[in-house]
Structure formats: C-alpha cells, structure tokens
Design goal:
- The protein has 4 helices and 2 strands.
- α3 packs parallel to α4.
- It is mainly alpha-helical.
- The longest helix has 15 residues.
- The protein has a two-stranded parallel ribbon.
- The radius of gyration is 12 Å and the shape is globular.
Length: 82
C-alpha cells in the first residue's frame, strides 16, 4: 500500500499499532535468506518495538520458499527485543 513505517511512526507515534511490512510477493518468494533477514531487521528497527506486529502483507502463501520463511522466523527471534 506504499506505507513506510518511519513516516507512520512520525505521524501517529504510539497512538496506533502497525502491522506488516515484510514483502510476501517478491522477497519471500524470490529473495535470498540473507535479504529476508536484512528486511526483517530493518522492519523491526523501523517499527520501534512493542507497537508493531511483524508480518507479511497478508499470509504466508504456498509460493514462499521454505528457506525464506525459516530465515524470517530466525531473524525475528534474533532481532526482536523480547
């Protein structure tokens, strides 16, 4: 939808919870595990913690490469500040 997390955070601050921003159309289907991990880290950094729910635009569909989904989960576990 063309939404950029930093702009939304600037405009709305902690008044909303953001959802998404991991591309399931290209990144998870055609990208590399390294690109996925970099995107997840950037998304978590930009999301600013507890007011952001990391996920794809809608689902993990059957076109997603299993190794990219694993990289997605590994990056979340590595970079999310629990």
């Amino acid at each position: 939808a063309g939404m950029e997390i930093p702009l939304l955070k600037e405009r709305f601050g902690d008044r909303i919870t953001l959802v998404g921003n991991v591309d399931c159309r290209w990144l998870l289907t055609q990208g590399t595990p390294k690109e996925v991990k970099e995107a997840v880290k950037r998304c978590l950094d930009e999301g600013g913690g507890k007011r952001h729910i990391l996920m794809t635009s809608n689902v993990i569909h059957r076109g997603v490469k299993p190794e990219n989904f694993i990289a997605y989960l590994e990056a979340y576990r590595e970079y999310y500040d629990l």
